[in-house]
Amino acid sequence: VRSDDITRRLVKDLYQNSFLINRVMSSDLTAGSEVMIQGLEEGYNGKSGVVLETGERFKVQVGEETLLVEPGNLVLARKEDVGAGREEEGRVCAICYDPLTEKERAELPCCGNASSTVQYCTECIQVIIERGFNGQVGRCPTCSSFITMKDGKFVVGEQVGACRMCCQQRVIVDSRWVLCDKCVLGGMFTFHYECEKCHNFQAIPHPMWLYQPRPAEFGNVTWACHQQCGDYTHWRITQQDASRVPPEHCPESWGRREEWLESIRQTRRNMGAAAGGGREEEERVEEQVEEQDGGGLARCVMM
């Protein structure tokens, strides 16, 4: 038998055996099965997930992502593998990607507890709150719940009451002036909007951009037009002002979430650089003091 015939047989047997193995494994998988991913690139190998739908390609939930995976790339996961994978994922902040310790992990009242697959560090959550509504209340990066810090702990910031500005029963994010989130944003950002009816522009002290599915689309909430209409019409923010809306206050549909998270990372980097610069300045002063003391000691010895 020639060597090339042997090679072809080996390849054929290998293909048939791999097909049989894949078929046996996929037959054991049903919706709800916990699986491990094998043979994929992009960092998914060894990840655990849950089968959502079966078929020619399986729909698998892996953390916050939903993947379409060939059955041959899935195997039933052992309980210890699933637990280990989740424990490993919980050791990194989902914003800055820094390793987490129990002391550094942010214990949020809504998400990000010890059993969550997505967790955050205390420093990133503090930045979110400081950049939130008047530096008092921020939003959870996962569920968008209002959060604040009280007595060194993160707590729910959803105090409902009558806003002093709009007189509506809303979540109060500014306890000093008793203002809701929308009235605080309106005071912080008075932008210009285009009227859908007369196409004139008007400054509106209310975050009308929150009601726009996209920056270029008109919103679904009306406001009084004081230009030509004399009526309540729909509005859209001007292109120039749309770029000035902070990413943390944009609707999810605007697609600026990653820009928001990157701005938090940049803030953290700047804080680290400032802290490093402060240490360098302290070291420089200490060196100068040592030099001065050394010179004085030398003069004393000479005398």
From TrEMBL:
<dbReference type="InterPro" id="IPR001841">
    <property type="entry name" value="Znf_RING"/>
</dbReference>
<keyword id="KW-0863">Zinc-finger</keyword>
<keyword id="KW-0862">Zinc</keyword>
<keyword id="KW-0479">Metal-binding</keyword>
<feature type="region of interest" description="Disordered">
    <location>
        <begin position="270"/>
        <end position="296"/>
    </location>
</feature>
<feature type="domain" description="RING-type">
    <location>
        <begin position="93"/>
        <end position="144"/>
    </location>
</feature>
<protein>
    <recommendedName>
        <fullName>RING-type domain-containing protein</fullName>
    </recommendedName>
</protein>
<feature type="compositionally biased region" description="Acidic residues">
    <location>
        <begin position="283"/>
        <end position="293"/>
    </location>
</feature>
<dbReference type="GO" id="GO:0008270">
    <property type="term" value="F:zinc ion binding"/>
</dbReference>
<dbReference type="InterPro" id="IPR013083">
    <property type="entry name" value="Znf_RING/FYVE/PHD"/>
</dbReference>
